[in-house]
Design a protein that fits this description.
The structure holds two protein chains of two kinds.
Chain A lengths: L2 H23 L1 H22 L1 H13 L4 H29 L3 H36 L1
Helix pairs in contact in A: 1-2, 2-4, 3-4, 4-5
Chain B lengths: L1 H30 L12 H8 L3 H4 L11 H11 L2 H40 L5 H52 L3 H37 L7 H57 L4 H57 L3 H37 L6
Helix pairs in contact in B: 1-8, 2-6, 4-9, 5-6, 5-9, 6-7, 6-9, 6-10, 7-8, 7-10, 8-9, 8-10, 9-10
Classes of the chains: A mainly alpha, B mainly alpha.
Chain lengths: 135, 390
């Protein structure tokens, strides 16, 4: 196991302990700390994912001349990034008790992913129409 | 009414016998008869037939197959029909096919692994996981459909080559039938093979590619879960089943009509020539017997030549068919392997699309083989028909 996992787990446990202590003494500070801890841990998780993202990029570049596949891989990575960020943001909002804001954040994330997928949808529909016309 | 018909048939037979006797006597008097296979030269139409073929086919034929001498042509036919040569040729084509298809397999597996990786990471994103899954599926489909569409080009090229080869064979078959005295068979074979060619060309070029496009478009519906995918799959399967049934039925009718018309024409020629042969041996003084046996030798040489050309024609059709079928079969295998990997890695949508494509490619293989089978049978009939002199 890499050091990142130990750092992540250690940081998470420490944050939870501090939040538990602060909850009784100063609930407002506990909420702030919870938000900071959430964002920090999320950033740490995303940075730990960088080898995976690099590998996926490498695979995408490996397709070389096949432009449509490289484009698809790039859309895939962007969608993954958007979904993770949206999820983190929505979780922070929920932890802060703002469920409705979390819902809107998720909705915004979904819309963003659909916008990212639009060229692919156009391509598939165009392909289907082209095939039917060719037929 | 019946008596009139019998009289009419007798009259026609008599006229045919008379024309044959006159033709033979004139040819003996003014032209002379070639007596052995060594002296029998290949008609010019053979060069036109070979010239119409693509270099991918002619490269695989031995040099003697291009010769204008009948002996060398027969050597080529013998060489090509050897099981060892056929197996080595098949292995060579298979090797080339595998080499071409391996990059596609790597790409497909890469796409499937990538898609499962992204779905796995996004699976914890609550309500967003389904949106990401849909986006992943779209990306995969875009990539896969590009590979699937590229097959259309090679299939239409195959049909084009097959039909142009058969069209170039038509005059050659007519000349070789006529050389052997099968005048009725020459006319009948040309007419029936021409009809078969026209029907097959019309049916394959006008329907196979549209069917493939329609089924591929329907399989794209599997990008959606539930009713859309199920409906697309069902409609696609039904269309393919009906199409295959119609095509098989049509091919069966064409093959039967081709065989029957040739058989009847050959019998008619045989009947007419028997009379002529009997008349020559009975009524031509002194040399009648010799002339009659010479006709037998001529018949053997023509039969040999026709057998050689027929075998080479069949091998050429196989050389056109086999690479296409191998390519389709290997792509089918690629889709099957990728589908298995997708279903193992939990990408159900991708697995569904790949399974649809696998099934679609199976049908294409069947159509390619069926369209060539009719012509292989036609070439077989051409090679095996006996001349009326023998």
């Amino acid at each position: 196991m890499s050091d990142t996992v130990f750092k992540l787990f250690g940081g998470a446990v420490l944050c939870v302990l501090v939040i538990l202590i602060l909850k009784k003494e100063s609930p407002d500070s506990a909420i702030t700390l919870r938000m900071i801890a959430g964002v920090g841990l999320a950033v740490a998780c995303i940075s730990a994912m960088s080898p995976i993202v690099e590998y996926v990029k490498e695979i995408g570049e490996g397709f070389g001349a096949m432009e449509e596949i490289s484009e698809a891989v790039s859309v895939l990575l962007k969608a993954l990034g958007v979904s993770l960020l949206t999820h983190i943001c929505a979780t922070v909002c929920r932890d802060s008790g703002e469920v409705s804001v979390a819902y809107y954040v998720e909705l915004g994330g979904k819309i963003e992913i659909i916008i990212l997928s639009l060229p692919l949808i156009k391509e598939i529909v165009g392909l289907a129409i082209g095939l039917l016309e060719m037929g | 009414m019946g008596c009139e018909m019998v009289e009419k048939i007798r009259m026609i037979r008599f006229m045919r016998c008379f024309v044959c006797i006159i033709a033979i006597v004139l040819s003996v008097l003014f032209g002379g008869i070639r007596v052995s296979a060594d002296e029998e030269s290949v008609p010019d139409e053979y060069a036109d037939f070979i010239g119409s073929l693509d270099s991918s086919v002619t490269d695989k034929l031995p040099d003697s197959a291009f010769s204008g001498e009948s002996e060398e042509l027969l050597d080529a036919a013998t060489e090509l029909s050897q099981p060892a040569n056929i197996i080595s040729l098949l292995l060579q084509l298979l090797g080339e096919g595998i080499k071409n298809v391996l990059p596609t397999l790597a790409i497909m597996l890469g796409i499937v692994i990538l898609s499962s990786l992204v779905t796995l990471i996004a699976s914890n994103c609550g309500g967003l996981s389904r949106t990401v899954e849909c986006c992943t599926r779209l990306c995969t489909f875009c990539a896969i459909s590009g590979i699937a569409v590229s097959c259309i080009e090679s299939l239409s090229l195959y049909f084009e080559r097959l039909f142009s080869a058969v069209a170039a064979f038509l005059p050659l078959s007519a000349v070789l039938f006529a050389m052997g005295g099968n005048l009725n068979a020459a006319a009948s074979n040309s007419a029936s093979l021409g009809v078969v060619l026209t029907v097959c060309e019309f049916f394959c070029t006008k329907t196979v590619i549209p069917l493939f496009c329609l089924c591929l478009s329907l399989s794209l519906l599997s990008v959606f879960d539930g009713a859309g995918a199920a409906a697309g799959g069902t409609v696609s399967a039904t269309v393919r089943k009906w199409y295959m049934t119609a095509l098989s039925f049509l091919m069966m009718i064409l093959t039967v009509s081709l065989g029957a018309s040739n058989l009847l024409a050959v019998r008619a020629d045989s009947m007419a020539m028997r009379g002529a042969k009997f008349a020559v041996s009975s009524f031509v003084p002194v040399s009648g017997g010799t002339l009659s046996s010479t006709l037998g030798t001529l018949a053997a040489s023509i039969e040999l030549l026709r057998g050689g050309v027929g075998v080479i024609g069949i091998v050429i059709l196989l050389l056109l068919l086999v690479p296409t079928v191998i390519e389709l079969a290997l792509l089918r295998g690629v889709f099957a392997i990728s589908g298995f990997c997708a279903s193992t890695l939990g990408c159900s949508g991708e697995a569904r699309l790949l399974s649809e494509l696998e099934s679609l490619y199976g049908y294409l293989e069947g159509i390619a083989a069926l369209s060539a089978a009719v012509f292989i049978i036609a070439f077989g009939i051409f090679a095996s028909v006996a001349t009326p002199f023998s």
